[in-house]
Give the backbone structure.
Amino acid sequence: MTRTGIPARLLIVGPQGSGKGTQGARIAEIFGIPTVSTGDVFRANIAQGTELGRRVQAIIEAGNLVPDALTGEVVRDRLAQPDAAAGFLLDGYPRNLSQVADLDAFLDDRDEQLTAVIELSVPREESISRLELRAAEQGRTDDTAEVIANRLAIYERETAPILDVYRERGIVEEIDGVGTLDEITDRIVDSLEARGLVRRAAA
Ligand code: AMP
């Protein structure tokens, strides 16, 4: 039996606190592709005190969006690495319509396109309570009540509209993000398999 199937070029989208980071990492592992998380790249650069980290720190701490040009550069560099040639899972990019256009242009040049967009749906109150818990546990500086409200407002205003674009392309899988971690992972895997994506062979 061949294990080729449709390439896993995925995007996971959901409000902060939807669990997209956790589920994204699980899905990437199951389908044998790297996760490309812009938030993780920025946080690592801040922790290491790089030039990029210094440029984005204040923006991230306020819960605002890093400028598109800078974010696009980070993503293009990462997607150009050899491990992303056969597939990838984007987490946190694109986050607005202009980033969708940038990503389309980049992928078009490679004769590629996203094969599925996972939309994790979680009620607003549930996202907020998960974020407050994460703030208490991890002490993320962008998880204060004020910053959380700002990030959710930006999600609704700028990020939610990108789903309409992808919905028109017929690639959005809306997944109920309430349940146990395993239940949610199973829902996502089932929906991707139904689209012809194939898990990586067991080691
Ligand atoms: P995240 O971990 O995805 O919630 O990202 C944390 C923060 O990094 C966001 O609140 C933004 O400040 C910044 N960030 C991450 N991805 C992007 C993006 N695609 N565009 C602009 N800013 C971003």
